[in-house]
Amino acid sequence: MLLLDIVLSGLVLGGMYALIAMGLTLQYGVARIMNLAYGEFLVAAAFLAFWMFTGLGVSPLVGLVVAVPLAYLANWAIYRVLLVPLVNRAKTQGQLEVDSILATFGLLFIVQGVALVLFGGQYYSYGYLSIPVSILGTTVALNRLLALLFAAIIGVGLYLALTRTRTGTAIRAVAVSATAARLVAIDVRTASAFAFALGGALVAAGGILVSMFLTFNASMGVIFTMKALIVVIMGGVGNLLGALVAGLILGLVETAVARLLDPGLTLAATYLIFLAVLLVRPTGLFGVAAR
Amino acid sequence: MQRSAIAKLALAALGLSIVASAASAQDKIRIGYAISKTGPFAGGAGVTTLPNYQLWVKDVNAAGGITVAGKKLQVEVIEYDDRSNSEEAVKAIERLATQDKVDFILPPWSTGLNLAVGPTFNRLGYPHLAVTAATDRAPEMAKRWPNSFWFLGASKPGADALAEVLRKLKSEGKIGDKVAMVSVSDAFGIELATAARAAFKAAGFNLVLDKSYPIGTQDMQPLLKDAMASGADTFVAFSYPPDTIAISDTAKVLGYNPKVFYTAVGTAFPLYKQKFGANAEGVLGVGGWNVDSPALKAYFKRHAEAIGREPDRWASPVTYVSLQMLQQAIEKVGKIDRAAVIKELQTGTFDTIMGKIKLADNIMPIVWWVGQWQDGEFVGIAPTKYEGAKPVRFPKPNWKQ
Q1: Widest Cα–Cα separation across chain A
Q2: Is the peptide bond before B383 cis (omega within 30 degrees of 0)?
Q3: CB of A247 within 8 A of CB of A151?
Q4: Given A135, B10, B93, B352, which residue has the most CB atoms within 10 angstroms?
Q5: What is the CA radius of gyration of chain B?
Q6: How many CB pairs under 8 A join A and B?
Q7: pLDDT over 90 percentage in chain B
Q8: Which residues lie closer than 8 Å to B175 by C-beta, 6 or more apart?
Q9: With DSSP H G I counted as helix, E B as strand and the rest as coil, what are the percentages for chain A, rounded to 5?
Q10: Three-state SS at B253
């Protein structure tokens, strides 16, 4: 079944895209930090998983339990120490975005440099749960399926949390306008720090999950940042459901193009879809819903 | 007052350092290189090139140094990061020659960077040992820049060597004439796929799948499903390391078991064995070595001890050979005379870990193009005329989950 084959493989690939984009959509959409070091944090989490698996014999899924809270704390600290001065100094949202791009650009080199010193430049890969699962006659790898499931759970779960709870509403208010949120007694700084740290926790989860099936090295972070940025912009900045849907669309389109046309055209197809979405909806697929 | 005192101190320090460097110039030989420590090439440079530079310097200095006119000179290294960028590489090499005034310069990693720095090496008059450069233009380049030496051959002999192995299997009736080929759409993949199309056709094969994928692709399921549907006995991928791993992993998950399974760059990496273990058995790839050679075995052992991991089984020993040749050429010339060293490299015969090597028109004569994982070692298969070439094991065992 060619169609089923494409749909399943596409969803699995798209799940990975969505997974790696969700942290960025929180950091950029709510905390207003355009984190250029995003991919580096993802690679750092992948290295952590590799080290725990090969050095300590700890399963990456157990590693999630350790790494996610750790990443939350680390990102919270980064926000409070490194980024709060920028937030205080910025007169407009645009200025904060420019400043945060410059600051996280520096952070990118620090994280990458540490990874290079610790692990060198060579490729790393380990196998975990690389076993076939048959769904309706189509085979997919269990580890990739797991990434899709996590993406779906995180995407839908956080979307509901943001739209149905009081704290979630406060966070969305900050995303719309920090100034107005402050007027209705929302603690903007805490909400922003929370969003940034939560985004950091998500990227750690993403890094650990993709390390189960991707080959990575210390200098591959920027590839993940670029892909995540496309998904985030396409889905609507700050919208988790948007990131999920945009990721799945990209995965489906890429797989369909690779199977039906030519694998060489996957990149072209990605950017074509990206362009088409932005022409029709300049704020992204779910851009309005975020406001 | 204070300022002038500091200035005097600085002047004195400067003077001292000039005296020191003048004195050290006689008992040291300065070797510089720019290598990709960051950026997309860091993965390849970190496996093949940099560890062998480090190992060679360690070996040479442990043995007392390079003998120049009866005197042992220790090797001193000056290292830069070219950030995987050809402009940076050119700038760093200019700097090494004009500012650091090093005696010799070692090349960067990758075909592209070696082609980019070729004119600079030529203009500055330094020997250019282009090791990790596999290009069809090697003979043309060697003619244009007589100071350049090319060690990984061209794609045509590479494709011919693979076709030779496949033709033999076909003539024995073990495989049919259908071949499924995929390639990465980057310099290496494009050149080899082009050469392979001609070589396979000449060997009577029929390409039932011929597709390329963008560099960086790690989702191989669609391609492999097509390969499975093609019904070919032989699967060939001209791939880069991350895609080599991804193709093998996906083939394992999908239970895709062609009788001949060939992936290109990365198959010979220790990473491949570490990741796939017993499943690597029977996989063909670019590279290989003469596993019966005691000199190479000793080299593998030294590399593992000094660097903490095994070398790759393709360009690593070749890199080391190029450095041995440089050392012997300097020793034969007996002084730091780069023009004479270039001449010696062109005409001399050198005693290396890969045996006696004499370059033919500045091109390395031994380039393994097909190797195979056999009992946990990546042995050389083709070209079959090389010493130590082993027969191919057939068929590749099925992937075990």
Answers
A1: 58
A2: yes
A3: yes
A4: B93
A5: 23
A6: 114
A7: 77
A8: B166, B169, B233, B234, B259, B260
A9: 75, 5, 20
A10: helix
In B, residues 48-87, which contact A (CB 8 Å cutoff)? 50, 84
A contact residues 105-164, partner B, Cβ 8 Å cutoff:
112, 116, 120-127, 130-132, 139-141
| Cβ-contact B215, B185 below 8 angstroms | yes
**Token pair in block for residue A104:** 């996280």
Distance, in Å, from the CA atom of B15 to the CA atom of B137, rounded to the nearest integer, reads 48
Within 8 A by CB and 6+ apart from B211, the residues are: A262, A263, A264, B181, B182, B183, B223, B226
Where do the domains of chain B lie, and which CATH numbers do they carry? 2-154+315-358 (3.40.50.2300), 155-290+369-382 (3.40.50.2300)
CB contacts, 8 Å: B37 with chain A: 116, 121
Tokens coding B382: 């083709």
Q: Which of residues 205-264 of A touch B (CB under 8 A)?
A: 213-219, 223, 254-255, 258-259, 262-264
- Residue pLDDT, tens place only, A42-62: 999 999 999 999 889 899 999
Alpha-carbon distance B44 to nearest alpha carbon in chain A (angstroms): 6
Of B222, B250, B401, the CB nearest to A258: B222
A108 or B134: whose pLDDT is higher?
Answer: A108
Q: Which residue has the higher pLDDT, A5 or A71?
A: A71
pTM of the full predicted structure? Answer: 0.86
Cα separation, B325 vs B245, whole angstroms: 33
Contacts of B241 in chain A (CB under 8 A): 123, 215
CA distance B8 to B136: 58
How buried is A89 (Cβ within 10 angstroms: 0-12 exposed, 13-18 middle, 19+ buried)? Answer: exposed
ipTM reported for the complex surpasses 0.95: no
DSSP codes joined into one string, B213-246: E-TT----HHHHHHHHHHT-SEEEEE--HHHHHH
Specify whether the CB–CB gap between A132 and B253 falls below 8 A.
yes
- What mean pLDDT do residues B271-287 have? 94
Chain A residues near residue B182 by CB distance under 8 angstroms: 263
Domains, chain A: 2-280 (1.10.3470)
Q: Tell me the per-residue pLDDT of B215-257, one tens digit each, with 9 for 90 and over.
A: 888 889 989 999 999 999 999 999 999 999 999 999 999 999 9
The DSSP call for residue B289 is B
CA B130 centroid distance within chain: 9
Provide the 8-state DSSP code for B49. Answer: I
Q: What is the pLDDT of residue A286?
A: 83
Cα–Cα distance between A125 and B24 in angstroms, integer? Answer: 44
Closest-CA residue of A relative to B184 is: A264
Residue-wise pLDDT tens digits, A67-84: 999 999 999 999 999 998
| B267 in A contact zone (CB under 8 Å) | no
**d(Cα B107, Cα B31) in Å, to the nearest integer?**
11
